[in-house]
Specification:
The complex is a heterodimer of chains A (150) and B (69). Helix content of chain A is 66%, strand content 0%. Chain A has five helices and no strands. The longest helix of chain A is centred in the middle third of the chain and has 31 residues. The termini of chain A are far apart. Chain B has 69 residues and is mostly helical. Helix content of chain B is 54%, strand content 6%. A two-stranded antiparallel ribbon of chain B has the order 1-2. Classes of the chains: A mainly alpha (150), B mainly alpha (69). Chains A and B meet through helix 4 of A and helix 3 of B.
Chain lengths: 150, 69
């Protein structure tokens, strides 16, 4: 489906769609603050348009925003996401630890984040090859120690 | 690791943007490779070497440090 959408439009459309879903959820929630859903939608649309404009820039951020990143830029993005994951895991661990010490009930979302992060990490190891390791190809008859020439 | 990308490119009087377009990467990536801040993947290293008509080991020398790094 993504192939039908121009690369520069993909991420702005994703932002607009996600923001619209959240704004709709806020509107469904009802209550006296329902009007905030309109503010959320407007903010998200402005953000998506800004993202689209930035996607045309001739720099690394523009290439990533415009879905035209090359191998180095993809690596930059991957490292940044890994850094974000590390920060999230440390923050979740601190939350769980502090919540446990204080007997607080608010720490369970931190535990969920920690568990999901750990599960996703293990899933990544499994998906990207650790589980498919082949035996080392050194099971043949061993050569006698010493110089190959001798 | 030292490489000869800048030297080869300037010999051919090419801009970084032209080389980037020929290799299918961004101008920023060519700049990073030339300055030694980024080591290209094996396929890209082969593409660069092939583009300049050299072998990979002629293009990239692991025994030499990049000047200024």
């Amino acid at each position: 489906m993504m192939a039908f959408i121009r690369p520069r439009l993909r991420k702005p459309l994703g932002i607009a769609l996600a923001g619209t879903v959240f704004a709709a959820a806020w509107a469904l929630r009802g209550g006296h603050a329902w009007w905030l859903s309109v503010a959320i939608e407007v903010t998200v649309l402005v953000g998506a348009i800004t993202f689209y404009v930035r996607a045309g820039d001739d720099n690394d951020e523009g290439a990533l925003a415009g879905s035209r990143a090359d191998e180095r830029q993809k690596l930059l993005s991957l490292r940044s996401r890994a850094l974000g994951w590390n920060f999230t895991m440390v923050a979740a661990f601190i939350g769980v630890t502090a919540g446990t010490a204080l007997k607080a009930s608010w720490s369970w979302p931190c535990l969920v984040i920690l568990a999901l992060g750990g599960f996703a990490y293990l899933l990544g190891l499994s998906t990207y090859g650790i589980a498919e390791e082949e035996p080392a190809d050194d099971t043949g008859p061993r050569h006698p120690a010493g110089s190959p020439a001798g | 690791m030292r490489n000869r990308v800048r030297e080869q490119r300037t010999q051919r009087e090419m801009s970084q943007a032209e080389l980037a377009a020929s290799l299918g990467v961004s101008r920023q990536t060519v700049i990073s490779i030339e300055s030694g801040r980024y080591l290209p993947s094996l396929p890209l290293a082969f593409a660069i070497a092939r583009f300049f008509g050299l072998t990979v080991d002629k293009m990239f020398d692991p025994d030499e440090e990049e000047a200024g790094t």
